[in-house]
Write a structure and sequence with these properties.
heterodimer; A: mainly alpha; two-stranded antiparallel sheet; B: about 240 residues; six-stranded mixed beta sheet; four-stranded antiparallel beta sheet; 9 helices; 10 strands
C-alpha cells in the first residue's frame, strides 16, 4: 500500500513535469499549427538558469525561490526571441520550412549551451529543503508535494486564464480563425508572441520540478524530456490545453508504475505502445476533436 | 466617407482589380454587384487591408487605409463581415459577441448595452448564447457574424455576400437586418450576387466585371438598365 501511494505521488510529479512541457507544445501548435521542436530545450535553459541563480540568491541572502522567477523571465524572453527571430520570417513559407527551422533551433540551443556551460553535467542546488513525511506508511518527500502543488496550481490557473480573460479568449480565437480575429481588432502577431512567452515560462516551471526531483542538468536534457512531453501532447490531443495536462499525467503515471511494478527497462516501450494504441483508436488524441464544421 | 481611387490589386501575375474607384457617402447603402470571380471580395479585402493594393488610394475620411493595419480598422469604426461568416466555431455565441467588442476597451456599460441590443434584434442568438457557434445553422451563423460586427460600434459595415447559401426566407430576414443597421445610422457597403435584392435596398450601386467597374449609378436606375437586367437579373 505504501509503495502504491508513493508511486502515485511520484507518477503525478513526473506527469506534471511532462504536462507543463506538453502545454508549451500544444499552445504553440494550437495557434500556428507548428511543432516547436526547440521547446524541450527551454527546460534546459531554465535548469541552467536555476543552476547559476540559486547560489547567487543564497549568497545575496535572498530566498532561493526567487531564482524560479528569474528562470521564468529568462525562458520567456528566449522563447519570444526564438519566435520573432527564427520562426516569424519563415511562417509563410510552409510547414516544412518551419519544422526544419525548429529542429535547427533545438540543435543550436543545445550546442550554444555546451559552448557556454561545458559538456559536464552540473548539479543543481536544492531550492526547497524540506523533510520527508510519512502518510499511510508511505515515505513522501515534501518537496515533491510542493512542486506538484505548484505545477497543478499553474495548470489550473492557465485553464482559467484562457477561459475567462480577454487575452485568453483572444488566444483561443486566433487559431480558430485568424482573419476574423484580425477583423475584430486582435493583433495576431502579438497573440502568437504572448503564447510563446507563456509556453516558455511554463518550461521554466517544469525545469524547477525536474531539478527538485533529479538535481542535475545537462545540455541535452531537453531533447528527451521534450520528446516525452510531445508524446503526452499528442496522446491528450494536440492543440487542446486540458489534453496536454491529461496526456502528461498519464505518461508520468505509466512510467513510474511500469518502473515499480513491471520492469524498469520497459517503461519507454510501454509508453510508446500506449501512444500507438490510442492513435489507432482515436487519431486525434484523447480530448482531440475531429474538426467538422458547418459551412 | 469611404473613397477608393484608381485601386489596382494583383495576385502574383494575375491583375485582379483594374483602376477601381468608388465612394460611399456617410449614411448611404451602396451595393457592389457582379458575377463569381469578378473581384468583389478582393475589393472588400483591399479596403480592410487583408489584401494589399498594388497602387491607388483608399481613404476613410482622413484616414489612409492602405497605411493602416487591418486589426486597427474596427477601432476607427470600420467593420467587415467576411464572406462565409468566419465566426469562431469553437467559442460560444456569447464569447463570439464579446470578441466583437475586443477593441472597445474596458467599457462594460457599453458592452452590456450593445449585447442587449444584439440579443433584442437577434432573439435566436439569445436563445443559444451558450451554444458553440460552430453548431449553429448557416442563417444563425450569418446573424452571429453581423451581431459580432455590431458589438464593435461600427460607423460603416462592409458586408460580403450575407445572403449566400441561405433560404429565401432567411435572405429576407438578413436584408431586413441590413435595413435595421442602416436605420441605426450605420453606413453600408454591400457586396452581393443577389443583384435584385442588393439593388432593391441600395441608394447607389456599382457593377464589377472581371476586375473593372463597368456601370455605376442610382440603384433604381440600374434596376431598369438593360445591360444589368440582361446580365444580372435574368430578364
Amino acid at each position: 500500500m505504501s509503495l502504491f501511494i508513493q508511486s502515485i505521488v511520484n507518477g503525478l510529479n513526473q506527469g506534471a513535469i511532462y504536462a507543463l512541457i506538453a502545454l508549451g507544445y500544444t499552445m504553440v501548435y494550437g495557434i500556428i499549427r507548428m511543432i516547436n521542436f526547440a521547446h524541450g530545450d527551454f527546460i534546459m535553459v531554465g535548469a541552467y538558469t536555476l543552476f547559476y541563480t540559486i547560489p547567487l540568491m543564497i549568497s545575496a541572502g535572498m530566498p532561493a525561490w526567487l531564482a524560479v522567477i528569474i528562470a521564468i523571465v529568462i525562458c520567456s524572453v528566449i522563447g519570444v526571441m526564438v519566435e520573432v527571430i527564427a520562426y516569424r520570417p519563415v511562417r509563410r513559407s510552409g510547414s516544412m520550412s518551419a519544422l526544419i527551422t525548429a529542429l535547427a533551433m533545438s540543435v543550436f540551443l543545445e550546442n550554444l549551451a555546451m559552448v557556454l556551460f561545458g559538456a559536464n553535467p552540473k548539479s543543481v542546488p536544492a531550492i526547497f529543503n524540506l523533510p520527508a513525511v510519512e502518510i499511510l506508511g508511505a515515505k513522501l518527500q515534501l518537496k515533491y508535494l510542493l512542486t506538484l502543488g505548484i505545477g497543478i496550481l499553474i495548470m489550473v490557473g492557465l485553464q482559467l486564464f484562457v477561459k475567462f480573460t480577454k487575452l485568453g479568449k483572444a488566444m483561443r480565437a486566433v487559431p480558430q480563425d485568424k482573419q476574423a480575429a484580425t477583423l475584430v481588432g486582435i493583433k495576431v502577431n502579438k497573440i502568437i508572441t504572448t503564447t510563446f512567452a507563456i509556453g516558455s515560462g511554463l518550461a521554466a516551471v517544469a525545469a524547477l520540478m525536474y531539478c527538485s526531483t533529479y538535481p542535475r542538468c545537462t545540455t541535452d536534457m531537453g531533447s528527451m524530456m521534450g520528446l516525452k512531453a510531445f508524446i503526452a501532447a499528442v496522446l491528450g490531443g494536440i492543440g487542446v490545453i486540458p489534453g496536454a495536462m491529461i496526456g502528461g499525467l498519464i505518461v508520468g503515471l505509466v512510467e513510474i508504475f511500469v518502473k515499480v511494478y513491471i520492469a524498469p527497462g520497459w517503461y519507454e516501450a510501454i509508453t510508446y505502445s500506449i501512444l500507438i494504441i490510442v492513435l489507432l483508436i482515436k487519431p486525434s488524441g484523447i480530448l482531440g476533436k475531429n474538426v467538422g464544421e458547418k459551412v | 466617407m469611404l473613397e477608393l481611387k484608381d485601386v489596382n490589386v494583383s495576385y502574383g501575375a494575375i491583375h485582379a482589380i483594374h483602376d477601381a474607384s468608388l465612394t460611399v457617402q456617410d449614411g448611404e447603402i451602396v451595393s457592389l454587384i457582379g458575377a463569381n470571380g469578378a473581384g468583389k471580395t478582393t475589393i472588400l479585402h483591399t479596403i480592410t487591408g487583408l489584401k494589399e493594393a498594388t497602387s491607388g488610394s483608399i481613404r476613410y475620411n482622413d484616414l489612409d487605409l492602405r497605411a493602416t493595419d487591418a486589426s486597427k480598422l474596427i477601432s476607427y469604426g470600420i467593420a467587415h463581415v467576411p464572406e462565409g461568416r468566419h465566426i469562431f466555431p469553437g467559442m460560444t455565441v456569447l464569447e463570439n459577441l464579446e470578441m466583437g467588442a475586443y477593441s472597445q476597451g474596458k467599457n462594460t456599460e457599453l458592452l452590456e448595452k450593445n449585447k442587449a441590443l444584439v440579443f433584442e434584434r437577434f432573439p435566436r442568438l439569445k436563445e443559444r448564447y451558450r451554444q458553440l457557434a460552430g453548431t449553429l445553422s448557416g442563417g444563425e451563423q450569418q446573424m452571429l457574424a453581423m451581431g459580432r460586427a455590431l458589438m464593435g460600434n461600427p460607423k460603416i459595415l462592409l458586408l460580403d455576400e450575407p445572403s449566400m447559401g441561405l433560404s429565401p426566407l432567411l435572405v429576407k430576414e438578413i436584408f431586413s437586418i441590413i435595413k435595421y443597421c442602416h436605420e441605426m445610422g450605420i453606413t453600408i457597403l454591400l457586396v452581393e450576387q443577389n443583384a435584385k435584392m442588393a439593388l432593391g435596398i441600395a441608394d447607389r450601386a456599382y457593377v464589377l466585371e472581371t476586375g473593372n467597374i463597368t456601370i455605376s449609378g442610382d440603384a433604381k436606375e440600374l434596376l431598369a438598365d438593360e445591360r444589368v437586367k440582361k446580365a444580372y437579373l435574368g430578364q
